[in-house]
Amino acid sequence: MPTQIILDTDIGTDVDDCLALAFILGSPEFQLAGITCVYGDVGLRARMTRKLLDLRGRSDIPVYLGATDPLLGLRPVYWGGHEGQGLVEPTGDLDGIASEPAVDYIVRTVLAQPGAIHLLAIGPLTNVALAFKRDPRVARSLAGLTIMGGALRGPQNLHLRYVEHNILCDPEAAHVVLSAEVPKTLVPLDATMRLRLTQAHLARIAGANTPFHAAVADQLARYPRFAQQGYTVPHDALAAAAVLRPDLLTLEPVHLDVELAGRLTAGMTLMRSPVAEAPENALVALDVDVAGALEFIVARMSA
C-alpha cells in the first residue's frame, strides 16, 4: 500500500524543494494527498507548485496557502530573489489553488485518517507548529513526521554553519514541533551536505524528455549556486528519500533541543544521548550512503 503523505514546502528559495517534488512524483510508493506552502510569498510558492504539478499531469493534487510569517513574528522573512524565474511570473492569480487554509487542511486531513498520513516538512516549520497548537491530537494522529532541517555538527562536521536555514527562519515553531509527541526523523545538514547533484545528473533529468522534466532541469540550471559552482545539494530530496529508504541513512536516536536565544546560536539544533530527564524525541540522520542515495534520488527524479 502506498505511503500517504502531505508535503509542506517553501518551494522557490532553493531548487531543492523542486527536486524533492520531482522525486515524490517519480516514486510510485508515495500517494501525495496534498501540498501546503509556507513562509513568505506563499502565493508565488503555490503557483510554482501548481505549474509543476500540471506539467506532470497531476491536477488532482491540491495545493494550499499556509503561514506567511514566523510563529511569533520575531524575524524578518528571508527572500532569495530568484523564486519562480523561468516557471511563473512574479505576480499572478491563484487559479487552481485551494481556498482552504493550509493549517485547516492539515488538521482536517490528519484527524480524519488517524495513523494514515506521513507529514514531510521541508521548509520552516510554521504550518506544522500551528497545526499542532490548533489541536494536539494532530501530532499523535500522524503516522510519522520527517523534517529536513538542522545541523548537529558532530566531530566530523565542524565545517557546517551553526544554524540551518529552515530552523533559523522560525526557531519557535521548530521548538513546538520537535517537542511534540510524534514519531519523527530529522534529516540535517550533517547528512545532506555529503550529496552533490552535478551537470551529469541534470542531463539525466532533462533526458526524460517531458515538459515536466524540462522544467525541473531548467530550474536546476537556473539556480544561482548551481550555475556558479556546477553542483548543488539535494537537501529536501534526501529527506523525501528517507521516508522510503531509511536504510540509506545512519539514524541515531537522540534528544533534540532548539536554541531560542543567543547572538550566534538562535535556531541552533542540539542533540544528546537520551537520558531519563531528556528522553529520545527523534531519530537523526548523521550519515548517508552517498552513492546509493544519489542513484536512488536521481533515478526517481528522472522517472
What brief labels describe this structure?
globular; nine-stranded mixed beta sheet; 303 residues; two-stranded antiparallel sheet; alpha/beta; Inosine-uridine Nucleoside N-ribohydrolase, Chain A; 13 helices
Write up what this structure looks like.
- With 303 residues, the protein is an alpha/beta fold.
- The protein has a single domain (3-301), classed as Ribonucleoside hydrolase-like (Inosine-uridine Nucleoside N-ribohydrolase, Chain A).
- 38% of the residues lie in helices and 19% in strands.
- It contains 13 helices and eleven strands.
- A nine-stranded mixed β-sheet has the order 3-2-1-4-5-6-11-9-10, with helices on both faces. A two-stranded antiparallel sheet has the order 7-8.
- The longest helix is centred in the N-terminal third of the chain and has 14 residues, at 42-55.
- The mean pLDDT is 96.
Number of domains: 1
Architecture per CATH nomenclature, i.e. the level-2 architecture: Alpha-Beta Complex
The name of the CATH superfamily reads Ribonucleoside hydrolase-like
What's the quaternary structure here?
single chain
Number of helices: 13
Specify the biggest β-sheet.
9 strands, mixed
Structural class: alpha/beta
Average of pLDDT = 96
The helix-strand sequence is: EHEHEHEHHEHHEHEHHHEHEEEH
Query: Which segments are poorly predicted (pLDDT under 50) over 5 or more consecutive residues?
Result: none
CATH class assignment: Alpha Beta
Our measurement of the CA-to-CA distance between the termini, rounded to an integer number of angstroms, reads 20 Å
Radius of gyration: 18 Å
DSSP strand content: 15-25%
CATH topology: Inosine-uridine Nucleoside N-ribohydrolase, Chain A
Relative helix content: 25-40%
Spatial strand sequence of the major β-sheet: 3-2-1-4-5-6-11-9-10
Shape: globular
How many beta strands in the DSSP annotation? Answer: 11
